[in-house]
Amino acid sequence: MIRPTRRQILGLGAAGIAGLGARRGWPFPRASVGSARALTAPSRGARLVIVGASFAGNSLARAVKRLVPGVEITLLEREPFFLFAPAQLRYLFGLVPF
Q1: Within 10 Å of residue 60's Cβ, how many Cβ atoms?
Q2: How far apart are CA 87 and CA 27, in angstroms?
């Protein structure tokens, strides 16, 4: 019989805890009714809704914000959390030019 190593046991335990947390929606909170009200509230200016907060959606939001400074931009994403892509944050915050 093969005995599991301490690393394997700890890895399985961590994966189990993460799986239970993800199943319950933790640590990613669900949208609240208050956030839905904020999205449907009357706007004082132009509004833009972008469906998909991937690299393209974030890039579009940044470009529009630069070209139309007063626009209110809402990004809609199917996933309940932000999925990090390498170098994406540096690009979106303007640290890397277009």
Answers
A1: 15
A2: 24
27 prior amide bond cis, ω within 30: yes
Nearest to 75 by CA among 58, 96, 95: 58
Q: Is the dihedral of CA 86, 89, 90, 91 positive or negative?
A: positive
**What is the number of alpha carbons within 13 Å of residue 62 lying toward its C-beta?**
18
- Please tell me the distance from the alpha carbon of residue 75 to that of residue 48, in angstroms, as a whole number: 9
What is the C-alpha to C-alpha distance for residues 11 and 84, in angstroms, rounded to an integer? 22
Neighbours of 91 (CB within 10 A): 16
Q: What is the pLDDT of residues 2-27, one digit of tens each?
A: 787 877 777 766 666 655 555 555 45
